[in-house]
Please model this.
Amino acid sequence: MTLRVLPIAGLLALAIFACVQAAPAAPDQRVVVVVDAAAGRDPAVLQEARAAVARAGSEAQLRVPRTATEQLSVTHYFAAKHYTLVIGVGLDQRHAVAPVAAKFPRTRFIAAEPGHVAAALARA
Model:
């Protein structure tokens, strides 16, 4: 009886060890900066947003939607993709942010003023 239990216990311990080793470490912060096209008409705003995204690392993205519907689509897409932070510049809070924030509570949404994306990233 003991000889049968020992290999089974060994296999169980090996399986548990393999699962623990396969579990990923804490994921890096995934960030998207969404700049409304109206705010993005100012080249300085887009330049500052691009620079902030570049400093944020490889998991950061920049999107410039043209309408409130596109804003909703973009915020929903990245929240559903498990991005940890969405920084919005000039977004329609009622239509593009509030419903998505309610549906995806693990995604943080930060409203930033044009030209203050880097400061918003630093606070996050």
Notes: The beta strands are 31-35, 60-63, 85-89, 108-112. The chain has a mean pLDDT of 83. The two ends are 57 Å apart (CA to CA). Residues 2-22 form the longest helix (21 residues).
